[in-house]
Amino acid sequence: MDLTLIIGIIVLVIIVVILLWFFGYYNRVIRYENRIDNAWAQIDVQLKRRADLIPNLMETVKGYMNHERGTLEAVTKARSAIMTAKTPQESMDADTMLTGALKTLFAVAESYPDLKANQNFLQLQDELTHTEDKISYTRQHYNDSVLNFNNLIETFPGNIFAKMMGRKERQMLQIPEASREVPKVSF
Amino acid sequence: MEKQPRLVEDHIRKNKRDTVVICMLMVVLLFSLIFAIGYLLGAPPVLVMIIALPVALFYIFMTYSFSVQSVISAAKARPANPQNRPEKLLMYKVEEMSLAAGLPTPKVYVQDSRDINAFATGHKPEDSIICATTGALEQLNTAELEGVIAHEMSHIKNRDILVMTVTVGVVGAIALIAEIALRMLFFSGGKSGDRKGGGNIIVLVIAIIFIILAPIFSRLTYLAISRKREYLADADGAYLTRNPEGLAKALEKIKGDVPDDPKGSKTVAPLYIANPFKRALRDSLLSTHPPIDERIRRLRAM
Question: Domain B77-160+226-300, CATH 3.30.2010.10 — does that match?
């Protein structure tokens, strides 16, 4: 057989293999990206839900906790920070603030037996804790997805294609230092 | 801990393959059974074959389709009631774990039993179910319950639920046929004094087939509850909660728990996080689940 024909076939096969590999790679990148975006959308929903619950909570505790203005104001402030946050990281910081403020509020509530017996309050407390847990687990999933995505686009030979597709490393959502501290409770 | 998506994908593929193998074995068994009966009754082989294949395929299709319902009813489970606070908190936990795993939220069921146990079932993550006993809700704290739910969520993520549920369905169906055959044997056995003929031989042949096949199919149960699958779900669950201690503590409580009278069918046992028939199988060499102590040791070593 003709030598040029053989070389031609080999080259063609190599091109086809690279193309097929690229298609697969492209789809994976898109899938991983969608996973990250979806995780963020979920966090966003939970943040909104959480912010919506706060006015109800305020309404419920108002009659009981008039002496705890500082505590209540901290919660309200954190809530408005969530509403005005623009970037994901800003939202997460505001949410961490709210978590801290709520922790203080619930700790203070321990010394109000009437409030603790209030069904409405109990329900709100459960649901707020639940949304917080949901946010932290979704953030974990978000970071897992970002890790997978970054691994995908930074390892060889994918990084060559990732550059061609204009994809850059994504940022993980950081938990600020402050949230790791135990909230101070003043009576 | 490094996550290795490749390995998980291989695991999922293997689970799907196992499921196909089980279903095919079932079709072959049913086909040969119907064929044997037809042949013994003296029907023409070609006709029997034409009837037997669709019947066998239909039967396996039904077993597959109804395997989830049959598991739920065998466990006597009911949907969780959001008006009840512990059950509401269980629903919350399931939702949180599904978010951590990036999966759709499974339906939540509750089984009324004083034992601490839980299982997951379903064919795929989109229509999965997680069920916990009331004993688990009463006796486990939040972190422990979370560990148990994360373990079940990992079974869903790894598609273990598919092969486990289908196996349980198939083994249940075999048990049903075997029971019918046995009863027929008894029934005709009582009459054998005044009647001799083909009927008895057929039933005898069916019974013998099942006596031969029963051990083979009980092996299939072990396929469904391979130790590897449980260890993997433990590890993945710990990865979801970032807290291996939660599940380890829950397993310790399960170990120390005095077993209640086990409810539900024995065929469902492989689905649970820990074997509900502890007492019966304590001395058995072929225990269905990996030893709890070893699971706890591995979780603590993470």
Answer: yes
